Amino acid sequence: MSSYADEYKRKLVSADEAVKVIKSGDWIDYGQFAGQVISLDKALAARKEELKDVKVRAMMRVSGMPEIIKADPEAESFSFMSWHCSGIDRKLCDQNLCHYLPMTFRELPVMYERDCHVDVGMTQVSPMDEHGYFYFGLQNSATKRMLDKAKVVIVEVNKNQPKVFGGNEECIHISEVDYIVEHDSPMPLIPSAPISELDKKIASYIVPLIEDGSTIQLGVGGMPNAVGNAIAQSDLKDLGIHTEMFVDAMVDMVEAGRVTGKKKNIDKGKIVFTFGLGSQKLYDFVHANPMIATYPVDYCNYPNYIAMNDKVIAINNIIEMDLFGQACSESAGPRHISGTGGQLDFGEGAYFSKDGKAFLCFSSTFTKKDGTLMSRIRPMLTEGAVVTTHRAVTNYVVTEYGIVNLKGRSTWEKAEALISVAHPDFRDQLIKEAQKMNIWRKSNKK
Predict the structure, then answer these.
(1) In the Cβ-directed half-sphere of 51, how many Cα atoms lie within 13 Å?
(2) Active site located where (predicted)?
(3) Angle at CA of residue 216, ends 364 and 409, nearest 5°
(4) What domains can be seen in the chain, in order of their start residue?
């Protein structure tokens, strides 16, 4: 340990000193999720007058507007980009202060290896252990592959960042680090999305289809959270967790005795995820917990690995769906909302799992600002909307009006099934539109 301690002292610098390595035109990575750097962001912002065309990547900002944007709202010195947009990123996109980096999440580590230039890679880490390792905490994702690609590696040590075990690629050794900065900041607390009665109704269609020994993936939002809570209150046994995002509802599932992982075929007994966000309860749960195994996203989200477990249940939200079964989950028309994420990954992986099921869930309607009620099931996606899940991949679709399986169905059968779970006020018009598009038979149900 003494040699590591000496090396630590040699590499320990202030944030202001560390960012001096950044030059005009450089590509910088800030880290991802709750591991984005804070003091280094502030120090870089202070160099606004010295730098031009510095390009900064991050993912799903959860701790306030970046200081570089506050210092440079005209984006003359810094350009900010996100692999997946949070609410903060979305507002910045609306102001042309953040630009989305399209990707399928499982490909991100390989994209860093093949397609991304990284001059300086930064990330938050937990304090160094006696073996000289810093842990990435709740954000495995593509962190190690990003740092491997970087010409210069800077870690921001935060005593509040949980030490989360792997898996693999969950940590970095001090010998791979160029500069160490210390900055303690509270972990961002992300409250669980409120659960509505509509969410509970949708969950009531899904939970009866989950069997003992299933492996669970939950997406972001109130509806997946409602399913997790319903699972916690059920009598299901020996569930496993192999998920993209680890959320509070999953902690509830474990503490209720629903999760053992004993029936998993890979990572038996382990909770597998690639990133996590939530309450302090979640951060305390994952810290140094041998039940946890974080993996890079090209393992966690790779459909072939997902499918190795039996009875995989994938539950994700969408924004809208057309009568062909195409799902949009990342934009409202051309306005960017979030990102592709892992919905496609888990949709494919769950379906190829033995007895697996992939659910896409959403409320049947939304209300515009002027009070107009709109259907989320549409003849065709809104102009500019991005297709997140291909019509051939879509499996189960769930609204408050029921659940339908689109696999193995023709275009007219898909249209008929989707109209059956649309809001009743829109069904007649949807039938007329389906007829115009030649995806409705005269003998179809009316």
Answers:
(1) 27
(2) 244
(3) 50
(4) 7-182 (3.40.1080.10), 197-436 (3.40.1080.20)
Neighbours of 446 (CB within 10 A): 6
Dihedral (Cα; 294, 99, 191, 194), 10-degree rounding: -120
219 marked as binding residue: yes
**What is the DSSP pairing of strand 320-322 with strand 327-328?**
antiparallel
Inter-residue contact 392 to 407 (CB < 8 Å): no
Catalytic residue among 107, 244, 320, 330: 244
Stretch 229-253: mean pLDDT, rounded? 96
Is residue 130 part of the annotated active site? The answer reads no
Is 408 known as a binding-site position?
A: no
For 257-271, letters b (16+ CB in 10 Å) and e give ebbbbebbeebeebb
Taking the model in full, what pTM does it have?
0.96
d(CA 431, CA 415): 8
For residue 147, give the H/E element and its range: helix 143-149
Residues contacting residue 440 through CB under 8 Å, at least 6 positions apart:
412, 415, 416, 431, 434
- Give the C-alpha separation, 268 to 239, whole Å: 11
The annotation status of 342 as a binding-site residue, yes or no, is yes
The stretch 379-383 carries a mean pLDDT of: 97
